[in-house]
Specification:
The chain has about 160 residues and is α+β, with helices and mostly antiparallel strands. The chain is built from five helices and four strands, in the order αααβαββαβ. It is about 35% helix and about 20% strand.
């Protein structure tokens, strides 16, 4: 784990809210010279703290009107079966995130599709067709209350 000081955390917080900010603007916001700010950014990237820069796309605006969370239970938990399932999930573009869980279900998939018909195709043709899937339970999102990929960095400044 990288050692982060208050300035590093401020840099990360600013970047989480505005990933397109210029180095000069970032330096001004965190009270550093542009060269010192750039050195810190490069260190955060090389240390693996900053793992990339992305754009946030509105799913509705690109025709992905249905969002679901799908809980999956596997029939077997041996490494070969798990690796095969993980490999399949990584190849499915509808799945934007997948988490291995504790409890009665093994995985939680976050899925975006155009509509219920697309979801049905995903479920029947891909997920239920995948060997090793014992049970699936789906919940559809009615309304997004909060959507953020920003981490709660202010809690770390103590």
């Amino acid at each position: 784990m990288a050692t982060l000081d208050r300035t590093d955390l401020r840099i990360l917080a600013v970047l989480q809210s505005d990933g397109r900010i210029t180095n000069a603007e970032l330096a001004e916001k965190v009270s550093l010279s542009p060269s010192a700010c750039l050195r810190r950014l490069q260190r955060l990237e090389s240390d693996g703290v900053l793992t990339g820069y992305t754009a946030q796309v509105d799913p509705q605006a690109v025709g992905l009107g249905l969002q679901a969370f799908v809980r999956v239970q596997l029939t077997k938990h041996e490494s070969v079966a798990v690796e095969r399932f993980v490999e399949l999930v990584n190849g499915w573009p509808e799945v934007v995130s997948c988490y291995a869980l504790t409890g009665d279900m093994d995985y939680l998939l976050h899925v975006y599709v155009a509509d219920l018909q697309d979801f049905s195709r995903f479920l029947l043709d891909r997920l239920l067709n995948a060997s090793g899937v014992a049970d699936v339970n789906s919940s559809f999102v009615l309304r997004t209350v909060k959507r953020s990929s920003a981490l709660p960095l202010s809690q770390l400044e103590h």
